[in-house]
Amino acid sequence: MKALRKISLGKLGLLASASVGLVLAGLAGDASAQSRAQSPAPSVWANPLGLQLHLTPLTPYLQNLPFARPTIYYPSIPGRLFNIVKYGAQSNALSTGAIAANTKAINNAIQAASQAGGGEVVIPAGLWITGPIVMKSNVNLHADRGAIVQFTDDHSFYPLISRFGQKSYQSPIYAVGVKNIAITGRGEFNGAGNTWNAVKKNYVTATQWTTLVNSGGVVQNGSMWWPSEQIMNDHNLIPFMVFVLNDQNVLIDGPTFENSPTEAFYLNYSTNVIVGNTKVLNPWDTQNTVGVDVSNDQDVLMFHDTINTGDDDIALNSSPSSSADALKNILIENSNLYNGHGGIAVGSYTSGGIKNVYVNNINEVGTEDGIRFKSAVGRGGLVHDFYLDNIHMRNIQNYAITFNSNYGNKSPASGTLSSLKYVPQFENIQINNVVDDYAGVALRIQGLSYAPVKDITLTNVHFKSVQKYSLQNAQNITMNNVTWVYGKELGMLYHYGVGGQDFSNPA
Asked: Which positions carry the signal peptide feature in this UniProt record (predicted)?
């Protein structure tokens, strides 16, 4: 196997332990909001056969919301045990034959558990090198502490499959059309992303670039390194690490997912999904390695997660659906986000509509943008009833808060809502109790003349930034107790420059 590139928390030189103690840092707001931020004591999830997993109570996250309570609950999975060793899995086995045997053993254990009516597939401590894992209904894939599931860097193990009408390599963890599934434990899943990921030259130091080039692979146009010519030519086929599609009752609780080929989690057209106490760690200089992409889902809860990526940390998207508001009832709480393009990113695909999103008690360090709404004509839709509370940001490179309805300069300068298809509309968004502790620009709102960004309320928001704000095609922007420290008042500031915008600070 090729040596795996070391995962780093990136540009700020953070250590993995740096996230400890950040969850409650810098919070403002009322007592009710602060009580939600407290870590609920674990409860015991007892299923019919007596298997016990310590899981966080969900009730504190489902009460006192600004919209109707979503239907979110833990899946019910029987407690039968299926140890992968009993199905032929071998720890620390490096040969192609052993990897094939491990792939077969893990998937056979999952199949047996599902056929038995459900159960827990146990991955004990050790290094387990395997090909893709296919989830089945009523199965909990449990990686014990000390277990490292290393997905093979031999791409021949990943067959080409159909994904949204196009070809793709099969995902390392593939969960399509299943119910009542879980991935739990304190083990690690490594996606061998270093054998899939491209790296841009301007993202790394000269020494790092030389090391990459000398390691093999190919360089595209002198500016992009690829692990191989095949991957460069087939980059549209690179798989998501965990692919969840058309599923019901999904739990991810406890593991670390690192080094993903592209997006670590792609959650699509699924209902009742919980991602808690989970780490996603990708090198910050890798391409398209979104942490968690929540697309066209309903009733999703994320909490106590730590995400460090080379793209958006948490991305919310929607595409045209048979019903309005394809993405709705999304709760994101008590999490730490590092180094992504956007900490909380909405879009750029919003054409199916997004509503009822509550984001609370989030820390962001070193992201390019803090709160990032982005879309364009042709991929836009109505995003509304969106609430952000208790957000603490530090060292945001570009914008602390940004709305951009002309993402990628793809929206026409003129038109009407009736004459254009899929126009971005950002409306009724409340942003409360935010501390921006250094950013390039505090606030940017760039709407469209025929679809202004409107009904945005900022309350108890405190900015420190190089530049103040820019508003274009914005209506009904309300600011309550918003303070600004910017420009020369700031002195030295860690930031990256922001160009191409007008920051004339209109009154």
From this structure: 1-33
Tokens of 166: 């196009």
pLDDT of residue 500: 36
Q: Label residue 390 left, alpha or beta by phi (over 0 means left) and psi (-120 to 50 means alpha).
A: left
Query: Helix, strand, coil % (nearest 5) of the chain?
Result: 15, 45, 40
> What is the pTM (predicted TM-score) of this model?
0.89
Which own/partner pairs from 52-60 qualify as long-range (CB within 8 Å, at least 24 positions apart)? 53/140, 53/184, 53/253, 55/253, 55/276, 56/276, 56/277, 56/303, 56/304, 58/274, 58/301, 60/35, 60/36
Q: Is 433 left (phi over 0), alpha (psi -120 to 50) or beta?
A: left
Phi, psi of 144 (to 5 degrees): -60, 160
Q: Position of tokens 């309350």?
A: 459
H-helix or E-strand containing 293?
Answer: strand 292-295
The C-alpha angle 322, 327, 328, rounded to 5 degrees, equals: 115
Please give the full DSSP string across 431-473, using - where no structure is assigned: EEEEEEEEEEEEEEEE-BTTB-EEEEEEEEEEEEEEEEEEEES
Q: What percent of the chain has a predicted confidence (pLDDT) above 90? A: 78
pLDDT at residue 12, as a whole number: 38
48: Cβ–Cβ under 8 A, 6 or more apart, which residues? 76, 78, 79
Encode 10-39: b = buried (16+ Cβ within 10 Å), e = exposed.
bbeebeeeebeebbeebbbbeeebeebbee
SS3 360: strand
Q: How far is CA 60 from the centre of its chain?
A: 22
Domains of the chain, each with CATH number or no CATH: 1-39+186-204+251-413+424-507 (2.160.20.10), 77-179 (2.160.20.10)
Q: What is the pLDDT of residues 384-397, one digit of tens each?
A: 999 999 999 999 99
Residue showing tokens 């103690």? 21
Specify the pairing of strand 52-55 against strand 126-130: unpaired
185 class by beta-carbon count within 10 Å (0-12 exposed, 13-18 middle, 19+ buried): buried
| Token duo for residue 2 | 């090729």
| Residue 336 near residue 328 (C-beta atoms within 8 A) | no
